[in-house]
Fold each of these.
Amino acid sequence: CTRMCLDKPPQPPDDVKPAVQAQRKIPKEKEEPPLKATEIENLESDKVKKLIKQYEEETGKYAIWRGTNTVAFKKRLKGEKVYDHLRPFKDIPIVKDIIKSKDSHYDILLIDDDLSTLRLLTTYFKSKGVTCTAVTSGTQGLEELENNHPKVVLLDIILPDIDGFEICKKIKSNQKLKNIPVYFISTIPSSEVEKHLAETKADGYILAPFAFSDFDGILDLLG
């Protein structure tokens, strides 16, 4: 028995081209979330830190934060929009809560179609260090409440689209909004307003013309 040992494999003749082997594409591995959450020590909002921690605990996945220390970045910090999760996580309920949550970026929502009243009250509250947002219709007020939870709502009864009684009912029947105190501001006689307090579940009312001292109770609520 003869055994041949070849140092090199046999080579094809020069005039014969080697067959081209088909190359199989190897699929790329899916990227997995990092083992650790990105540092969030620069975040200025304790609320956001708490929400991110809650998200991580409930999902077992880590929050991903992308951002740099630019002016725009710092502005986002103050607005509490300081999260950017991996796309697959964005439909998780807790993430939706984080994204939508402004949670009292201001103290009072004013709903009144009288511009002079709005200017007067916003100027007064600002002098007291109270932040407020003003809208001139019931529809705008309800839209504002979809994503914002002020600490108090001051509501005119006579509005161009939806009356204040109906707006108050909508607020108080909403599970997320029902605990927000709602106070009517109106020129309607007190006897007429009081008829609707029970059905609307309003927390009180202030009659116009009013004095600034009439809002002392509101300021006390804001602490």
Amino acid sequence: MVLLAVLTLFLGDTAAAQGSVSGDRQALVALYNGTDGENWKTNTNWLSEKPFSEWHGVTTDKNGRVTELALVNNRLKGEIPAELANLTELEELMLNDNGQLTRPLTVSLRGLSHLTRMWLSGTQVCAPRDAAFQAWLATIDFSGVNCPSESVIGKDTKETTGGALPVEAVRRIEALLDEKARRTPARRKMDSRLLDALRKMRGQSAANEMVT
């Protein structure tokens, strides 16, 4: 019974925070701490006890709830925190032109039923391809990019990191090394080992291309 009472109290406090001035403060503090607020271009009154309407870039309604957050080109750096979903009265979110903002948005932002505008162009933030999130995104004024699909990420990884090289590329390298291998005994020995490795990669590449 005691555990149930504690859980009820905790969940009640959490729900209240998500739709209150205190919930707004939690969200703003999380944004400040998560995006290097100390080094923003302008951070006037942030984390102070002054009304949110006096915090740089924040607009509130008559009840003190945050309705607009405009920190355009303000040197935000890092990740937009999930706590931003606590800003349940938010109508406009403008964080564009902060080039060091990164990572996908949290899908919980689609719970912001009053949001009509979200500008994220000029950042490295992307919108998740989650179907429900995309459907919600289509209902607001959004500027930004969608996250790459998994298939695109996989293709890029194979071609640019430790994955298999395209067969034709391996063949061209082999041909070049075959020419150079005729020069000196030491070079022939070194290039022979590299050729063996490349031929193994060619076999892996061919197998991958047959699968795809």
Amino acid sequence: WRRAAGNWKEMKHGSQDVTASSLLGALTSNSATNYLSLPYNNDLLFSIVVDNNRKLHGEIVDDLPGAIRFPCETIALIVYPQMDQMGNPVVLLFGEACDPLTEWYCTAQLRIKCGPEDRSKGVQVVDRGVFHFGKRAHPISIQIRDSRVKRIKFELRFVTKVYESLPRFESGDITIKFKFGDTMQADKSLLALHSSYMGLSLLPYHLACSLMR
């Protein structure tokens, strides 16, 4: 379990919503939601277990105060407590790639369990379903409506994973220089394939002139 504490930022986005109205029930919906900063230190505890009962180790997110990152191979799951406009706690769950230069998407079976502060009472399932994580996927929003909820456990089983590294343009037979000094390497043949203008520009002057006649 990791504890969330500190100051919370404001986030505005749509989400996959879960409303935990009690320790025993939940309701899911999709909506565009405004979330506000929490005015107090949150005392919720979080745990994430994936696939074959493998518990992830949480770590503090330096650039997102109050959030907890749970690294999981090529991605990381982020738990980020917030507050809705009624003053109720809201917990966001979303993912990010460990390498920012990637396109990624995954589908997971998710069970959300909640429990009181007293660990001897265990945790109970409040919702389950198939949810999406990815570079362009909305966060999952867990709206807490029961003050007894102090522990939240996420159990995930990944169904599909798509992870593709983007080109870094660190090699090639030509160097492209930009206005403010940045450079990138590229292949002349690829530039010519996708741009006739670039193709002519890369040819020797006499050949380019003959082709333009």
Amino acid sequence: MKTSLTDPDSVDANWRSMFQQLPGTGVKPDQFHSKTRDYFRRLAKDASRYSSAISDPDTNAKQVKVLQLINAYRFRGHQHANLDPLGLWKQDRVADLDPAYHDLTEADFQESFNVGSFAIGKDTMKLGDLIDALKQTYCGSIGAEYMHITSTEEKRWIQQRIESVAGHATFSADEKKRFLNELTAAEGLERYLGAKFPGAKRFSLEGGGRAGADAERADSSRRQERHP
């Protein structure tokens, strides 16, 4: 510190910047020590100003657990999606979707936590509300498996679209009519091919007709973003 007073250029720029913010900069070296000592003594007496900045280790640990829970739903929520309308399929338990797996208890459900990058439109949520939102987004009637995608841009694009609507996209009347026309056209083409080439090997659209409409809409949205 004394060196910074007598020869400032000999001190690293970061340290020099810090020393310049201390009181007494520009005074004689023999006066600097007493002024600096008084400065830190005043800070110690007024420590209450900085107490709010001190974090609770337990709260920080739970915050990390909450972010891990969000990530677990992104990775494995599709394994618990409601894809069987008849209820005949018994789903296997997905352990890391359980808050208890992350050391989160019902006592934490009324506590508010930062939701990180979860695109729900809020910075913080009560844990109970967050879990409900995660279930609606990733465990509804549509399962979203996308975290294996290597492109960060594509992965975030899907994540934003899914989470911002809680897994329930809204469509205008015109969009619904267009989807119906596309599904009808696909069904008509399949029937025609079946009648025209009865012995030819082909892959049926049965049960997956909606995938074409979904893919077309996703591609259309992507094109609009690139060329607004």
